[in-house]
Design goal:
Length: 114
């Protein structure tokens, strides 16, 4: 059975920014398709059907939380999980300095369940 998953406020804000940029650059049809791909990947993380990697090796092996990431298109999906749920912490563009962005992430605050 898949885990439940939810977005933090930061992840929700990033998803909106991605959608707006994609609409302006490629149009609404592409924005909808890309958002659907990102959401499908989040569902895949929750159902444990996609691979992911630990962020500890990128930042600090002694991080208190085991942030993980997977890639979808031009974005990394950063998340934490436990036995029953996945919290999507943020969507980070692949051209970003991922270790620096991850180091600045705060403890997840959730907004919506999916």
């Amino acid at each position: 059975m898949p885990k439940t998953w939810r977005l933090t406020l930061q992840a929700e804000s990033s998803l909106l920014d991605i959608a707006l940029w994609t609409i302006e650059t490629f149009g609404p049809r592409q924005a909808q398709a890309y958002e659907e791909d990102l959401i499908a990947r989040c569902s895949g993380v929750a159902s444990e059907t996609v691979s992911s990697q630990s962020c500890r090796a990128l930042i600090d092996p002694y991080l208190s939380e085991d942030l993980r990431f997977t890639r979808s298109g031009q974005h990394f999906i950063v998340f934490v999980e436990d036995d029953t749920s996945v919290i999507i912490v943020d969507f980070v563009h692949v051209r970003s300095d991922l270790p620096e962005k991850l180091a600045r992430l705060e403890k997840p605050r959730t907004e919506r369940d999916h």
